[in-house]
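Deliverable D4.2, example record:
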Amino acid sequence: MQAKRVIISGGGTGGHIYPAIAIANAIKEKYPTTEILFVGANGKMEMEKVPKAGYEIIGLDIAGLQRKLTLKNLSFPFKLMKSLKKAKEIVKEFKPDIAIGVGGYASGPLLRQAGKLGVPTLIQEQNSYPGITNKLLAKKAKKICVAYDNMERFFEESKIVFTGNPVRKEILDIKGKKDKGLSHFGLSPEKKTLLVIGGSLGARTINTSIKNAAKLLEENNIQVLWQTGKYYFEDMKSFVEQNQLNHTRVYDFVYEMDLAYATADLVVSRAGALSISELCLVGKPTILIPSPNVSEDHQTKNAMALVNHQATILVKDSEAPEILGDSVVNLIQEEEKLVKLSVNIIGFGRPNAADSIANEVMKIIN
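Output generated by the structure prediction step:
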């Protein structure tokens, strides 16, 4: 049988890149001879993370349209035309059997040109509320793999496959790793642990809120494992040192997320689709602070899908700097509520999402 060829396109944040890599890994595991090419946006995270995962990637000079009036928007039509031209060349040269879009700037031009050239396309929609690009691309897509119910509001029902969101494989296995995690991060087994994650680039509100709450958390015997994101790391590190917060561990990026999750009694996180998928799989009680700076406010919609099933606590971004500390202290002392949140959130976990998507891909190709 001739080796199959697959293009995977998208990126911009970890929320798009890690699912894309998980899909690629699942395809390779099931069908080892498959050739996979990634297409991303120049200057974005995927150009570094994808080669690290062992895959080739080509970059397009594409950027998003800014929602507020800015001079950057003047260059958008030129970048789009250039990206469409290059995407067409990539598709003609690589001759894929299928093109997969995971969201992010590059997936628009690539999937549009693949569709025009007769290549079947598949979309992986991570959020409970799709962005404009995926709504447009869905018209030509063969299948749309989703992670939330009621997506027929946005997509043709016959195309929808409920797969869940693919996550990094190492995160699926955290059982029995708590002691190893505590030792790795230099944390005490005698204290409750709060894990703080603001996404791969960090979140200003979450960092400000933890800063404001730092003294209160120390006074209540709560230790903090804090991923700040690279933009905020130096400031937060200085803050921790100056205030002698001996029970706070601060990192720009935590690579050993399985160990981080294993140590956590409670997690504070943004409500990006990937973060939520991981939290559902590890079954950790969570306070979600949706980012207000995303299209269609989709993080709030992601979070509400869990809130409606008593599977998480939501704190508004605007209120977090004032109330997050008290919310953490009150919740972490309520053992019964922590257990209930944990049981309810784990019901949303889909551990085989990447395999399910790989199967859909091969069904379309064959």
